[in-house]
Amino acid sequence: MDRLLTLEMFVAVASEGGFAAAARKLGSSPPAVTRGIAALEARLGTVLFHRSTRAVALTDAGAAFLAQARRILADLAGAERELRGAAAEPSGQLYITAPVMFGRLHVLPVVGELMAQYGGLAARMMLIDRNVRIVEEGIDVAVRIGALADSGLKAVRVGRVRQMLVASPAYLARRGAPATIADLAGHELIGATGPRAAGEWQFATQRWRVEPRPRLTLSTVDSMLAAAEAGYGIANLLSYQLAEAVDAGRLVSLLADEQPPPLPVHLLFEPSRAGLPSVRQFVDAMKARMRMAGLA
Fold this sequence. Notes:
Layout lengths: L2 H14 L2 H8 L3 H15 L4 E3 L4 E3 L1 H26 L6 E7 L1 H18 L3 E7 L6 H4 L3 E5 L8 E8 L1 E5 L1 H7 L13 E4 L7 E3 L4 E3 L6 E3 L2 H9 L4 E5 H9 L4 E3 L8 E7 L7 H16 L4
Parallel strand pairs: 3-4, 3-5, 8-11, 8-12
Antiparallel strand pairs: 1-2, 5-14, 6-14, 7-12, 7-13, 9-10
Helix pairs in contact: 1-2, 1-3, 1-4, 2-3, 5-10
């Protein structure tokens, strides 16, 4: 049986959790998929799945082989797309993930402009304040803010953002502004859950342990901004999240001299997708957007 076809069958069974579901996805039959997996296992000399009457599960060898199989198929698909039209206009669906507010403020306008320019382009956006698995989710481009973990993915740096401490004028009139990092211990603090949750706040000269714990802890950036503007305390957020409120005077930047080094903003994608016209155009447009926003 064709090697490429058996790889596709293997990935489909692993993704769908069964031979019948994989057959439906591939437009094949369960017996054909069963034969394909058997042929692949015979060629590799190892068992890839534990089989029972109720479930199919990857063996350790199968789990290790899955990532390689997915990458092989992705590389082949990318090479075919690049050969068919490296200079073609963007078309099809571009799947992007980004943090919620960053996506709304900076990614959505770029996507809208690209869709207006290229009638054949559609977009799907997953705006979520956590990192998702790019390969497994089939994502074309992911926006990442902060240090990157080592991986086989391609990263293009497009900008940077800063951590900022802020409070409302009303809060500062009532409690005064902290003059030093140590002064924060006497203030009301607004904490975060999720990726921004931290027992320490990073500054240019030191890490400051958040003690006592914040009296108010919130799960979204929007709610933290609203709480800070309402005078409930001092919030630790990122510059792009705060720009509008600071410019309008609703929030005041604190301890600016103690800001830590900026955090990089990267676009992350599989190397096989680098040649896609939609990905190339999106990367170039995001670079331009970051320059215009003063975030480059």
